[in-house]
Input
Amino acid sequence: MVLDVFAGPGGWSQALSLLGVRDVGLEWDTWACKTRAAAGQLTIQTDVALYPVAPFVGKTSGFIASPPCQAWSMAGKRLGLVDQPLVHQAVADLAQGRDTRAGLLGACQDQRSLLAAEPMRYLYALNLAGEPEWVAMEEVPDVLPLWKQYAAILRSWGFSVWAGILNAADYGVPQTRRRAILLASRVRTAEPPDPTHAKVAEPETLFGPGRAQWVSMAQALGWGATDHPLATVRAGGGPGGGPEPFPSRSRKALADARTQGSWKPHPTTADIVLQPQTRGEGLTARHGARPPRPTDGPAPTFTSKATHWRWALRSNNQANATLRRADEPAGTLFFGHRANECVWVAEPAPDQDDEAAPTPASIRITAAEAGVLQTFPADYPWQGNKGQQFSQIGNAVPPRLAAHLLAPHVGKALSRDDFELAA
Output
């Protein structure tokens, strides 16, 4: 089996299902477990720190771990950095079969910090049986020093190991999400997958096609095939009380972009198409109407009429929040204690006279939209209230990134076109 500890709502599991493999996930959060169940994923609801390893010994070919990142994330207090020496000590002890977690836990500023050492408890027991064949782990960038400690231990056990930082946008995720990744294998050289996308599209050469341009939010959501201006997204939430008044026609334009673009909550049907750009009667009479584009083909050119405003996505409500236009990838999506910290923002166009510009306004991103920006299917069955759904989405591994990381270890070869966002 493939064992996935801290399995969350199923980012790794969704990737494995696309690759024709199933895993068993260990997860504590009730609503993440309900989401996994609704998605048909095998799950044991348990505290990963207490569950015994013995049931998996002799049966585990692959091991996946994405420990909770709240103690380390820039979105929190980052007490994991303060606790880092204690976590390193726990990993070193567990790698020798010594369980010192109880004593170290009492000294931690944030008890969640020590969860990053839990994968070593499983790996030590599995290694005694010559397992697993491969390992994949993911966390926020600040955990990289810990991953390098894991790497040194795994190498001493006979693994080939790679640890470093990868950008999800380089693998077709419409989000510049940087993560610390560890890949290890007993049977092949561990190395990161070749990027399929780049910030600027690369030309074709004698060696084949270059990397495609990063996938934008508009492409992922199917926006831009209407006469409405593209949106810009702010990752982060506005204070409670609902959205501010919108500039003239802006709320309707976002609603139309959501409903008239290619993105629909039915990604598994074969008849979803990107509607082509409207053509004038003269061009249509001379050349005929453009046929719709199937979801397995390239997206149409994204255009918009000149307006006084545009949409963007803002990552949080702080002054230095990441702000990205809809024709760019999103910044890293994360969600805090509010039900939704990520908002679409209507802003004056760059050439708009400041005095005549409308007041900026915002509207909250939907859970389905946030899930699509993480490359989950649009109809992924998120469970719980808004806060619970957004918490799951923000903590999940993007399935498209996970698929590229796992493919070599399960005997698959992927290209940039193998996992369309609508699939």
Observations:
- Residues 225-229, 234-249, 262-308 have pLDDT under 50 and may be disordered.
- The chain has two domains: 2-200+397-410, 217-365.
